[in-house]
Amino acid sequence: MKLFSTPPVLSGKKNKKRKKLLKAQRKALKRADHPFESDKAADCRGVVLSNRAYLSVLSEVYSRDPLETGGIFFGNVKNGVWYVAEASDPGVYTLHTHAHHEMDNNYHNHIYPVLSRLYQHGLCLLGLWHRHPGSLDTFSSDDDRTNHSFAEVIGNGAVSMLVNLDPTARLTCYYLSKNGEYRTVPVMVGDKYFAGTGFLELTTSEALLKNKDRLQAEIFDPEEA
After folding, report:
1. Helix 105-116 vs helix 16-25: angle between axes, to the nearest 10 degrees?
2. Rounded to 5 degrees, what are φ and ψ at 103?
């Protein structure tokens, strides 16, 4: 199975570098050992970012400022709350301008199992985030297509968060339901909001050894994609 059946592209004109990125990204593989459990996530009533996820987003935004950038959300869902334990950067082979960016799917297919195996509960794909210029906190038509592609892969909607620097960091989070309807949802930041979920609990060395065969099977090789 694939993490992304087609590479998510937020916007931008076709060019040689973009075509090269897309060709490589189409070969990306998906890890399916921790499938998204739709019965536990019938809806989204709020999003919680771990301290690590929040700092990961900010560090990427500031490092690319004033260019657009983004990444992927990984975590778990409980009682309608989508808990984001990890937020990725866009990857290695990326494209950034003031108005759009393109991510590296091979990179994300690599780090997905690398991050997930560190947590007791594993990680699921929850959605994505990206920085928008100025105070624009709504989606373009290209953004909308990307959000729908994530919702389709996840199977039960997706969260998509916009980050603006106007002038301080401002977060606007949307939930795209499996019925194709958008709505804004509240965002909370802090590990304290994970209390009682166990979603930030790390695995043990014993568990890693027990799952050695699975870990070896998850190694992502883009040459074999």
Report:
1. 40
2. -100, 170
Tell me the pTM.
0.82
Beta bridge partners of 127: 73, 159
Q: What are phi and psi of 150, to 5 degrees?
A: -65, -45
Enumerate the β-bridge partners of residue 81.
46, 78
Concatenated DSSP letters for 64-105? HTTS--EEEEEEEEETTEEEEEEE----SS-EE-SS-EE--H
Q: How far apart are CA 199 and CA 210, in angstroms?
A: 20
Strand partners, 68: none
Residue 32 exposure: Cα atoms within 13 Å on the Cβ side: 8
Mind listing the pLDDT tens digit for each residue in 111-131?
999 999 999 999 999 999 999
In angstroms, the Cα distances linking 130 to 63, 73, 220 are 13, 11, 25
